[in-house]
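Recall that a protein's primary structure is simply its ordered list of amino acids. Everything else, from secondary elements to tertiary packing, is in principle encoded there. The following example makes that idea concrete.
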Amino acid sequence: MSHITLAKSDAEIERCFVIMQALRPHLIANDFVSRIKRQEQQGYQLAYLEDEGSIKAVAGFRIAESLSWGKFLYVDDLVTLESERSQGYGTNLLNWLVDYAKANACEQLHLDSGVQRFAAHRFYFKQRLEIRAYHFAINLIQ
């Protein structure tokens, strides 16, 4: 039976590293906990789905408010290890995020996904998410 927990302790955060690195390969293990702790000061939270004693999926998210979206939950990171996909872990974690957003009076849930992540897009469409905007960015450090 799987369960979803907010990672609070350094040990819990550290256990999420391997899964998160599958999505964010630039991350470094010995810097991961301190980065999460810094982001937590800005409202970031890390949730993980555990089944049979191992973490199968991880989500990083925050609750914010904007003029355009009202109060919303923004999913920064959502990843299931490739070897664990199509077993319902991503669906369960996304449903948990939706329930968490509703419980915290959020009006919407948002996430961005890289244009090259076709499998992720199929998953999001299946979960009834829709494309609503383009996301534009510019690197400020060369």
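The mean pLDDT is 93. The helical segments are 10-15, 17-23, 29-40, 89-103, 118-126.
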